[in-house]
Amino acid sequence: MAILTAPKITQMFETGDLAPKGTYIATCIDIKDLFGVERRKFQSEEIEKVDLTAFLFGFRDKQGKPFKVASRSFRISGNEKSSLFAFLKAWLGEPPKMGWDYMELKARKALITVEHIPSAKNPGQVYAGIASISPVPEGYQVPPSAPAQPPAAPGPAATPAPQNEGDELPF
Predict the structure, then answer these.
(1) Distances, alpha carbon 50 to alpha carbons 54, 62, 169, in Å
(2) Looking at per-residue confidence, does 167 or 98 come out higher?
(3) I need a labelling partner for 59 at 20 to 30 A (CA). Which of 6, 116, 131, 161 fits?
(4) 64-80 b/e with 16+ CB inside 10 Å = b?
(5) What are the residue ranges spanned by the domains of the chain?
(6) Looking at residue 39, what is its pLDDT?
């Protein structure tokens, strides 16, 4: 007897606190692929096995507080009509090349717009999503990873200025 089970994947990343709405320069801090995920086909009760990917971005608000926001899960497909292709095209500003490894996007900057999306399954719960993504426009100032440090005095006694203690976030 075959038993249908619900897909086990709801979110591919843990993002922590709810990211604020707005447009930010963010850094891709992780990309995760899952292979052979079972899920229902669109508008069907039939179960299919698919390969999924998702992107995790990090940014800091005006006060310097770090936030993370994840893209939705995309079916891994190079088809020009696929959601992944459209997402990559918007981020890169041009269509991705076939055969290219999108894992190279780790540490790449993007201009993202964060939206708040009410949960369909849990009324009253809201999560952050990426409403749009694009390359960082030329001329936009990319905020530094850590607060700017004053230049050290010349000479052998110069020591580096301390960074935010315990803050090893790459964005």
Answers:
(1) 13, 39, 32
(2) 98
(3) 161
(4) eeebbbbbebbeeeeee
(5) 22-134
(6) 87
